[in-house]
Amino acid sequence: MWRANQVTTRNRVPGLGKNCILGAATAIVLIAGSSVTAQPVRLLVSSGFIDSVLRYDGATGDFIDAFVPAASGGLDGPEGLVFGPDGNLYVSSENTDSVLRYDGATGAFSDAFIPAAAGGLNAPEGLVFGPDGNLYVSSFFTDSILRYNGATGAFSDAFVPAAGGGLDGPVGLVFGPDGNLYVSSFNTDSILRYNGATGAFIDAFVPAAGGGLDGPRCLVFGPDGNLYVSSRFTNSVLRYNGATGAFIDAFVPAAAGGLFGPFGLVFGPDGNLYVSSSSTDSVLRYNGATGAFIDAFVPAAAGGLDFPTFLIFDNDDDFDGVPDETDNCPFVPNTDQTDSDGDGVGDVCDNAAFDNDGDGTANGTDGCPTDPNKSDPGQCGCGNLDTDSDGDGVADCVDGCPTDPNKTDPGQCGCGVSDDDADADGIADCVDNCVDAANADQADADGDGIGDACDDCCGGGMPMMMPLMLMGWKWGRSRSRRRGALRRSRG
Description:
The chain is mainly beta. The chain has 1 helix and 26 strands.
């Protein structure tokens, strides 16, 4: 990966860049006519020191093959990986200053899509096809982002000119949710943001050394909308607010799980985060929600892996550059995602007979034409499973007590507690200050937590007998007096 004849004063690190874009994937499905054939998702990894791209089972991590054999097509120092709109695999060949193209199905060499040094390319790192369909490449030694025609490979322009915005050693590239281009600037320990349409510098989204960033390589926006960055010299993955760039945390702490020399980042089909540990020749997996270490998904040197750099899941079934989980027509190429009627199904496959989501139900009768798990919105709507954890017939998405089979609303007592009302006064026993005596107003004159209706202090309970006894005594006494008076008058 080192270029022997390269003369530079920079701290050149072998295998610096990568296209770090790919989110969580769904199962890949191919449609041929009306038939559906499931295929496994696979993980592709650039192996820098053996000049090949290795392929692993996306579910188990087992080695499958050298998808791109060693030095195929002149590959020397593979870095960035991206599937193009034509369905083929593009690989940046760092030491030949070129981008090579391989058959997306077989891995066979096609051509040098970007010939050596075209447009001034020098040490290509990250690759990404932009919203305009063109290919963007980070040129490490010219401190620029170069743009090439996405169909022909012809040089278009320096989208980000040399040192634009202070760029120094560009590596990872990603177009963010806001449509702008984010670039890791390795030698300034920062993440820079550029206008996605013009390339004009916007800001240092993550300022120099923000959150302890040291040697940023890959970057990817996660399922939570935040930005994740591999920090080479701290052996960690840092997380930043996806809207403001503010540091959140070390999502993967230093050396967690044996991480050493983190490089590529990708969220996999299971929602977890995969990180290439370049110095341990492995790919490590971390919980996508907590960052906790799970396992060495690809163990050290498995399949001959030596200095892993870029990672990519082949989760784009039609290879149009749009991942299956967000593609409005995942089995027919449609990079522009045109959807004229706004029904969530791309124009190129928007007809009643087509099965857009590959679930065996044609669009015309499919209530959820882009959700392979549902053909009816059900209780939770398309795109959301109708999981019923407590088996009460009410899906969790609308169940106020998803783990209490006896309640679908917390009521007065909350989930897991019965709302029994022994005195039928409309106040559940759990909160009734007088359980056995109806008292809807819950009056409690002395504030002792016992309702007046059953409190000795205030006319309730046994003390009521005393006034009655007193009244009876007074009445009997006056009656005796009347009888005495009568006796005297008769006498």
